[in-house]
Each structure stands twice: as C-alpha cells, then as structure tokens.
Here is the input.
Amino acid sequence: MVTINLSQWILKEEKYQPDGDRDYFISRSLLRIMKILRSLRFQSRRKPFKSISAVSAFCFTIVMILLCVSAGKLNFLFCVLALELIILCMLDGQTISRILQNSLMMTIFSAIFVLPSMLLGTRTLLVMLPVKTFLTVTALGLLSSFFRWHQITEALRFFRVPAIVVFILDTTLRYIVLLGEISQDMLIALKLRSIGRNKDKKLAVSGILGSVFLKSREMSEDMYQAMCCRGFTGEYPITSRNLLRSGDVLFLLLTIGFVALFMILEGWVKL
Here is the structure.
C-alpha cells in the first residue's frame, strides 16, 4: 500500500466568495431591449382588421393631429380626448398601459420644456402644449396598436410618399429587431460571465457596441448584395387590392364631423 502525502494547501477547503458588484446598467439595458422586442413582436402578430383599412385610419389620424395642433381652445381638445378614451376602452390592459406610459412621459417632458413660460406670464402655453402632446402621441399609439407596420407603410405608398422614405422606415424597423436580438444575447452572455467586481465597465459596454456596429455593417452589405441579386429597383408596389373597405365610411364620417366641430368651436363658423 502506497501512502501519498498531500500538501496542506490541497487539503484546505477553498471558500471563494467574489466581491459584490453592481450590474444595474446591464440589467436595465437588457430589460429595455427585451421590452422593445416584445412590443415589436406583439405588433407584428396582431390580427388585421377585415372591415377597416389602414389608409382611412392613417388619414383620420393625420387630420386629427393637424386639428389638435391648430386648436387654440381647450373645448375641441376635450372632444378629441373623449374619442381617444372611447377607443382605448376597446383595447386590453397591457396595450392601454403601454400607450398611456409613452403619452404621459412625453407630456411631462413637454410640460418641463415650457415651464419657464410661467415667468413670462403665458400660462396658456403651459396647459395647451402638454395637452396637445398627450393627444397626438396617444393618437399615434392607437394607430400602431390597431394595425401592423407593413400596413402602415403600405398606406404611406397609397398617399404617394417617396419610396426611399418607406424603404428607410421598413429597414429601420427590421434592423431594430435583428440588432436588438444580437444585443440581448451579448448582454446575457456578459451578465453570466461577470464574476466579482469589474472596475472597467466602460470597456465591456464599448465591446458590445463595437460588435453590434460591425454586425450591422456586415448585415447591411449582405442585404445590399441580396437586393441586387433579386433585382430590387427601389419601388414598393401596393400588394393589397382592396385598400378601401366598408368600415372606412365610419372614419370618413368622423373626419367630416370633427372638422366641422373644430370650425364651430374655434369660431370659424357661427351657428
């Protein structure tokens, strides 16, 4: 029987306890990216409306935004607010929370932006601008909640928006999803491999940003070559045959009604 004498440092139980470190930035960035990806995926999986087209909804939204911006009194803005609240009641709680969260955030930002106007005595601007911001952002949120992105871009082509603008919007949305998934995987890997205290967090974050930038450049070159091989000429043809549907009559009546209401409440037409 052979006896082996081991060193004391081998027999000693190792109790390694890494120093605690704050990874709040990594966790917050990861949650933010996951939230954006979840909203985009949910938007793409939404069932399209069969009786209402995106063209009429987009036209009605643009008209309402122009009327809200041009309004000089709160009476018309309250009417628009009532309509938006009625439409919000048709959505689920998660969608309502997302729309109101974005609207309230932009409203608070606009209120802080015009807060110095109180010193000049123009208190009307302090009320009008946040209310208009809330209504316009909510209107755009409702439009994106009821229709998919490709339906909205198709509506842009119906109104003869240049193809280059539609191309930029379409590719931007696609790259947000693709690069967001890459950033999500890299942040998860960084979070799992971070042990102990990292005194140089900027180096890790800059490495992720550099990798995402190189990946985006590689993907853009691949997409350009694929588009050249498939004969892409820069045109976005309208694929849907029935862009105007039976339910668009409701939007037409609402548009005429709110334009008439705007002219009456603003004093342009006297009854």
